[in-house]
Specification:
This protein is α+β, with helices and mostly antiparallel strands. Helix content is 40%, strand content 19%. The chain has four domains: 191 residues, Immunoglobulin-like (Sandwich), CATH 2.60.40.1730; 83 residues, 2-Layer Sandwich (Zincin-like); 148 residues, Neutral Protease Domain 2 (Neutral Protease, domain 2), CATH 1.10.390; 120 residues, Serine Threonine Protein Phosphatase 5, Tetratricopeptide repeat (Alpha Horseshoe). It has a seven-stranded mixed β-sheet with strand order 5-4-8-2-1-11-13, with no helix packed on it. It has a five-stranded mixed β-sheet with strand order 15-16-17-19-18. The protein starts with a helix and ends in a 5-residue tail after the last helix. The structure holds ligand BES and zinc ion. The site of zinc ion has 4 residues, from helix 5.
Length: 616
């Protein structure tokens, strides 16, 4: 008996030692958009202590980083862009150290070289933001919904977090954070972390993010905001005049989280809340952990645009839990999330709705490929954005081609097997950042598993590394859309009366609008408008699609509303197709320039970055 025990102990000790030896540290992959060298010295935790000042429109304070100096060398490199670094100290006793800023590179900012000791574990950076910072948008009261108090919010993705926090700004580097944020006493602060649900009298708010996240998910919003719960783990933040509308619109949020968990495993972040931002928020949504940031354009009044919520929620698995290691791998974030979004949508809104969304998605892919060309290197899933602003290279490709690829895989292996694969994939890479190549390796090992027939059926390499789309792409079909296609063939002859009783939902309207005949006249558009009131529809997506047609077919009655639309919001992805349509004619370009000049003070810097080059 004793002998067996001893043997057992020996075996246990032996295997334990072996394990230790095999857990070699994973090298962090090189990210061309970050100056940091994490394999030498890497930041693991942030204690942020900042003050938000609306008079000077700056954030100032201290970023204390807990670091691991793996190389035992004498420097750590952070990214910074447009910050004013005033002092750097080391350790709890804050011994001042020297630092140096390297050469500036367009969009990338500068490397911040800090002298450290081989045993340094803490670096304290004192800094303030400046007017040139891209991430922060400071809004005057009149730019908010309530029009009474100022507002500020951040947008970190892709490479803008370094414009409000000195950090190792690569999605391949993860850290936890605590923050203490001091704001004017009449405002409330929220972050991508556990959040307060009420204003307090001190104007001081504290936050904890205990899960390791990449820097682009650092986020803050400060304004006169309120909170309303939806269920016991979901809720909504918004300004007073928006909060009830938002709560109603997002009533299904809790259901969506439950649906996603059933599909892909437990939601790992604790609470899931959303905040509706003022109209200059430049995206439909941004998946900041615990607190998705949303455009107010999602508030259609009929819950018809909430697939956006499903998308941002989906990032809680694909993106925030398993993260693209570099911006060249962004399809791992956006393609997987588009897939997850559609699956959540199918569960919550039903199969008919999902089929329509599938057809719209494939159409978006076609439009994008037509625009950039089937041979464009940007039509690969794995892209090369080095030297470029990653936001600039961003198209619908990572979303829609990524989605089409995952649908192809699903069809090849069957839903049950694919769901299990995805759940396992999220679990195996939870809180890790991975490259496309890591994915390929995992995929081949766990799904293909030597099955050559299956591999040929899927054509993984073609999908990921080749341009355009492979011929095994699925063509989705929607019966509901087919009915609309039939209507499309006849309305010119029999008139449009009564059509608004047949084409009712937002998806159906969008499909009808997108496939209006090429030779449609302004007079016919006026008839349609009389029937549907598209020009003044309160639905942002319906208006956007209708306005693209109105510009193309010179339906001038809609022009004032188009101008209104372009000057009211800064949702880049929705403004761009309108501007792109306008600049196709000389008069249109003049018009576009005039509107842009008027609108630009309300636009976010990233929106300006996207639109300005078009108008040259
Ligand atoms: N993470 C993106 C937004 C983003 C991508 C910001 C790249 C900066 C760089 C977000 O999840 C997103 O995809 N938003 C979409 C909406 C979605 C429903 C397609 C948007 O804003 O258009
Ligand atoms: Zn997304």
């Amino acid at each position: 008996m004793k002998k067996i025990n001893l043997l057992l102990i020996i075996i246990i000790v032996f295997t334990a030692c072996q394990k230790k030896e095999t857990t070699i540290k994973h090298e962090i992959v090189k990210d061309s958009h970050s100056f940091s060298k994490p394999n030498q010295a890497v930041a693991k935790h942030l204690d942020l202590d900042i003050k938000v000042d609306f008079n000077s429109q700056t954030i100032s304070g201290k970023a204390s980083w807990i670091i691991e100096n793996n190389s035992k060398g004498d420097e750590i490199i952070f990214d910074e862009n447009s910050l004013n670094i005033t002092k750097v100290t080391l350790g709890d006793d804050e011994k001042e150290t020297t630092f140096e800023l390297g050469k500036e590179v367009e969009f990338h900012g500068k490397p911040l070289h800090i002298k450290i000791k081989s045993n340094t574990t803490k670096v304290n950076i004192y800094y303030n933001t400046t007017k040139d910072g891209v991430a922060l948008q400071w809004l005057k009261p009149e730019q908010t919904a309530d029009k009474k108090k100022p507002f500020v919010f951040s947008q970190g993705e892709s490479i803008w977090s370094r414009t409000w926090i000195p950090c190792q700004d690569s999605p391949g580097i993860r850290f936890t954070y605590n923050a203490k944020v001091t704001v004017p006493k009449d405002l409330m602060a929220v972050m991508s972390a556990t959040n307060p649900q009420q204003k307090n009298k001190t104007g001081i708010y504290t936050f904890r993010q205990e899960k390791a996240i990449p820097s682009y998910l650092m986020a803050i919003a400060v304004g006169d905001i309120e909170f309303k719960p939806i269920d016991n783990r979901t809720g909504v933040y918004a300004e007073h005049t928006v909060i009830n509308k938002a709560k109603w619109e997002f009533e299904e949020l809790g259901k969506m989280v439950n649906a996603a968990e059933k599909l892909f495993g437990p939601y790992q972040w604790g609470r899931y809340d959303v905040i509706v931002l003022p109209p200059s928020f430049p995206y439909g949504g941004m998946e900041n952990p615990n607190l998705t940031f949303l455009t107010p354009t999602v508030l259609a009044g009929d819950r018809s645009l909430t697939s956006l919520l499903a998308h941002e929620l989906g990032h809680s698995w694909s993106g925030n839990l398993v993260t693209n290691a570099t911006w060249d791998d962004i399809w791992l974030n956006e393609g997987f999330t588009t897939y997850v979004e559609h699956r959540i949508g199918e569960k919550v809104f039903g199969v008919k709705e999902a089929k329509m969304q599938d057809v719209l998605s494939r159409k978006a892919l076609k439009v994008n490929l037509d625009e950039i060309g089937n041979n464009s290197p940007d039509s690969r899933l794995k892209v090369d954005t080095s030297g470029r602003n990653p936001d600039e290279g961003l198209s619908d490709i990572p979303y829609e081609k990524g989605y089409a690829f995952l649908q192809t895989v699903e069809a090849a292996v069957g839903r049950e097997k694919f769901d299990k694969f995805l759940t396992d994939y999220f679990k195996a890479h939870a809180f890790q950042s991975i490259t496309t190549e890591d994915f390929v390796e995992y995929f081949n090992k766990n799904l293909i598993n030597g099955d050559k027939v299956l591999a040929d059926k899927i054509k993984l390499n073609d999908w990921i590394y080749k341009t355009g789309t492979p011929n095994n792409i699925i063509i989705p079909i929607s019966e509901d859309f087919n009915s609309i296609d039939n209507i499309q063939k006849t309305w010119k002859k029999i008139g449009v009366k009564g059509l608004n009783q047949k084409i009712k939902s937002t998806n159906e309207k969008q499909h009808f609008i997108d496939y209006l005949p090429n030779d449609i006249t302004p007079k016919e558009m006026a008839e349609i408008d009389k029937e549907f009131n598209f020009t003044n529809s309160g639905n942002f997506v319906v208006q956007r699609q209708w306005f693209i047609q109105a510009i193309q077919h010179k339906y001038k009655k809609a022009y004032p509303s188009i101008e209104q639309f372009l000057t009211s919001y800064s949702r880049t992805g929705s403004l761009l197709p309108l501007y792109k349509q306008m600049i196709k004619t000389p008069e249109g370009k003049t018009w576009a320039k005039r509107i842009y000049e008027k609108a630009k003070t309300g636009y976010h810097t990233t929106t300006i970055q996207a639109i300005k080059p078009l108008l040259k």
